[in-house]
Amino acid sequence: MNRTSGRSSRARRTFTVTALALASLTVAAPAPANAASAAPAFQLPFPCGEKWQLNTWGHAPALDMVKEPNQVGTDGAKLIAPAAGTVVQSTFHSNAGNMIQINHGGGWFTTYIHLKTRSVSVNQRVTQGQQIGQVGATGPTSNGRPHLHYEQAFDANGDGRATWGVADSERVRPTFNGVEYGQSNSREWNDVASANGCSVTPVEGRLYREPNGTVAVVAGGAPVRFTSMDELNASGYEGAPLTNVPAGWLNTLPQTPRDGTYLRNASGGGISIITGGAKYDLSLAEWTALGQPASVNVPVRLINTYGTTPRNGTYLRNHADGSIFVIAGAAKYGLTPAQYDTLGTPAFTNVPIGFINKIGAEPTNGTYLRNPVNGSVYLTAGGAKYGLSLPEWTALGEPDSTNVPIEWINTFTAIPRNGTYLRNHADGTVYAITNNHKKPLSYDEWVTLGKPDSTNVPIGYLNTIPNA
């Protein structure tokens, strides 16, 4: 719709001359209907935050653009690349005036005419947001009215170029920030804001919306996407303001909340601390003792995706006394200051002692521990350790290991406890450990015992354990 008839009529007169004068330019086959699915992430060709009026007049899908409000500042306005590409035309055309065309790859082109100045040359590589010229009124078809005539095109016939200027060329509907324009003639879009070059800093707890309608809240620096408006409202965000961001912006953020993030179940009010890929549900007293840290409302389904034991190599600090624990194999080990220094003073998360107390003291079978001082790796099973040679570690598939103090490794015995099952990774034979001895099991014996889990170990380890 027109906001002021005077402004629209001036732009309309501009189009009338343009359409007639450009009719002599090359005509080519129309672009395929599915071309837009492969388009680059085009942004409006103007600096971040500027607002422009877009018109198709009678030459859809091409657009004429004038600056808001009321065209003030159109003449000489800074023109920037809507996406990265290579300049293939930069010239003065007898009808169009100063014009530029950019090849963005994948068959995609953009064309700009009536420019006041051109600041790029043919074969020059440009980045998104780089200035390529200024908006102007050059060429007789501009009718002396400053505006940008803009076209997006797709190389439908595969000849490596894109025609422009008239109907039935390779022009397609322009898309900016994921929103399509140019659907039909006599259309006008007012106050279209540019997101080109915008640097959006994610703010904890703020809602962001991409052009396709995806809404996410930032928690721990990561986007938590909502599956529906009902879920958004149920999480306590009904009526909350949304910050619009460019298409794909959410994917540029870390996708996992950082350690030490506090998530609040909006439906129940409970607050969980996240660290090492695990959650711990805080009591009111624990949350208070931690200083009542801020939390972000999220759907309970997200909180439920976390387990209860931090991943290997996580460091937890008892906020009450400052002691630090390293986690490996779902077990914890309390570090001395010297040990913590030897491990490189890694980052830790302050947690209640209740969280630490829920974690066991013995690693699960098949955990690999590494002495950072000399690099030796130990395999643990049934409360025992075995130092692997390099060939043995390689034969086992070079499994990941966790750096821990040698003092923790030295607390383990040499022979696993009764009821541990070891499997020779070379031939698959399973051995049962009883009274510091091993006994090979037949398949039937293993089945009778309920097919117990076993830990893959080198034959060298088995050879250190006496036969039953």
TrEMBL record:
<protein>
    <recommendedName>
        <fullName>M23ase beta-sheet core domain-containing protein</fullName>
    </recommendedName>
</protein>
<keyword id="KW-0732">Signal</keyword>
<dbReference type="Pfam" id="PF01551">
    <property type="entry name" value="Peptidase_M23"/>
</dbReference>
<dbReference type="InterPro" id="IPR006311">
    <property type="entry name" value="TAT_signal"/>
</dbReference>
<dbReference type="InterPro" id="IPR016047">
    <property type="entry name" value="M23ase_b-sheet_dom"/>
</dbReference>
<dbReference type="InterPro" id="IPR011055">
    <property type="entry name" value="Dup_hybrid_motif"/>
</dbReference>
<feature type="domain" description="M23ase beta-sheet core">
    <location>
        <begin position="75"/>
        <end position="152"/>
    </location>
</feature>
<dbReference type="InterPro" id="IPR050570">
    <property type="entry name" value="Cell_wall_metabolism_enzyme"/>
</dbReference>
<feature type="signal peptide">
    <location>
        <begin position="1"/>
        <end position="35"/>
    </location>
</feature>
